[in-house]
Amino acid sequence: MFRQIDAKTYASPQITLADVAEARALGVGLIINNRPEGESEDQTPGAEIEAAAREAGIAYVAIPVSHAGFSMPQLDAMAQALEQAGDAPVLAYCRSGTRSTLLWALTMARTGMHPAEIAEKAAGAGYDIAPIRAQVDMLAAQAR
Length: 144
Description:
The chain is α/β, with parallel strands linked by helices. Helices cover 47% and strands 12% of the residues.
């Protein structure tokens, strides 16, 4: 269920409380929730995931991303979360994993990672950054 994007980042569709144990077994040190609360009736509430994560010794942060798109404060929050995780693996989730992957892609572009490398890593995990490729290109160019 968890799709590995790069050496330390996984993306996933909505996780359950049982998935927190799987994340712990992988050595995940931070879970990032990219779903707004109440987005769908079948989603596990963030507070429940947070409690299970903390019980398992995993840090948790919510950076909700709606279908309206991405903002610079969300990119700042993602960059801060990834930095604070240090070398520990990170699991980001949303409804399908796409918004988490796209937020990762934009964040990596701001670090100057080459857009082709970003696209390749996302594709390797089964995600397409085409909807945000222009923004990835722009952010990567600004970082250089």
